[in-house]
Amino acid sequence: MEPIILLNEKEYDLRLSRLRERMEAGGFDAILVSDNANIYYLTGRVFSGYIYIPSSGEAIFFVKRPSGLEGDGTVYIRKPEQMGESIGLNMPQTLGMELDVTPWSTVERIKVVFDMCELKNASPLLREQRSVKTDEEIALIKKSGMKHEYVYRHIPKLYVAGMSDLELQVEIEKLSRLEGCLGQFRISGDSMELYMGNVLTGDNADIPSPYDFAMGGGGLDPSLPVGCDGSVIKPGSTVMVDMNGNYTGYMTDMTRTFALGTIERMALDAHELSISICSELSKCIPGTPAKEMYERAKKMADDAGLGNYFMGHMQKAGFIGHGVGIEVNELPVIAPRSKDILQSGNVIALEPKFVIPKMGAVGIENTYVVRENGMECLTNAPEELIYFSE
């Protein structure tokens, strides 16, 4: 038998108390959690089932699978209709569910159990909750960052003359997995799929994808139209590496750019500008509107005459940064119409990138934690353009 909650008691109580404060402010009498990312956040593990959290009193953990979990409030069920037997007469008036991600068929079954309740969307509440990390969460992200950095420092040694982007990516994936990378990119919200990250060289970086990426790549098959396409890494081209940093269940996001042969001045200038934008934005403190960060970065690109290549060329991304943690696209979003405001404890990936036609993508991406006096970088691999040996 294993305890259903793997978080230490202090950490569990902290997350639960913060959640209940948000529930009270949002008018929720209870919430019902079923999404894997939120279950992991609240327990330190993933299981199939639900967590019922009332505004006061003990949470109930309704488990379908796996067997062998135990602890206060653990109840095994085969179907959601059985939850009513445990909740009994203490039905809430207002119930929150993750309506952004819960299937309609599941919602309909839950409505039968809570037939007298007003149903409200708790997805925004949970996203806001997870956007401000606890010290323990930041420690896990830092650990991922150190592993991530180790892998990136070894990428130049993985390159062999004549390699394709796919062959290089496979070598990076191998080293990452041997260092403990879990391989999973948890992605929330709109449909977006990715396998272990992107390695993009040459014109493939300029091929639009169905997703909101600064650069997409054609991919290896129309079923996954993003990323490397088997192109040989040629002299005079760049190689952008944006690979998985999930080593602890909490991930870092990092991009670095490599090159083979002589690179044109405009690409070199764009890469240096990406580093400068990250440096400038990392000075932002709690209370800074996210849209102002985007505007500042866009102005720097326009003033340098590189606006046409900023955040994509044939297809542009609508953001320059995003929250990261259990999932890769958490709050806040650094975008022109974002209403988010920086808070201490936010963890943000900043990725001011450029796509230079006929040459490839350049720029960096770092993961930062927002502190009272600015941002602390958690991904400290070398930022300069690194040249492969021919």
Short summary:
The chain is an alpha/beta fold and 390 residues long.
Structural class: alpha/beta
In total, the number of strands is 19
- CA-CA gap between termini: 56 Å
Please work out how many helical segments DSSP would assign. 10
Highlighted features:
390 residues, five-stranded antiparallel beta sheet, elongated, six-stranded mixed beta sheet, 10 helices, 19 strands, alpha/beta, single chain
Provide structural commentary.
It is a single chain. This protein is α/β, with parallel strands linked by helices and 390 residues long. It has helices spanning 9-26, 36-43, 83-87, 104-113, 123-131, 135-153, 155-158, 165-178, 265-281, 290-303, and strands at residues 2-3, 30-33, 48-54, 60-65, 69-70, 74-76, 94-97, 118-121, 197-201, 237-243, 254-260, 321-323, 330-334, 347-350, 353-356, 360-363, 366-371, 374-377, 386-387. The strands form 5 sheets. Strands 6-4-3-2-7-8 form a 6-stranded mixed beta sheet. Helix 4 (104-113) links the parallel strand 7 (94-97) and strand 8 (118-121). It is elongated and about 75 Å long. The model has no long low-confidence stretch (mean pLDDT 95).
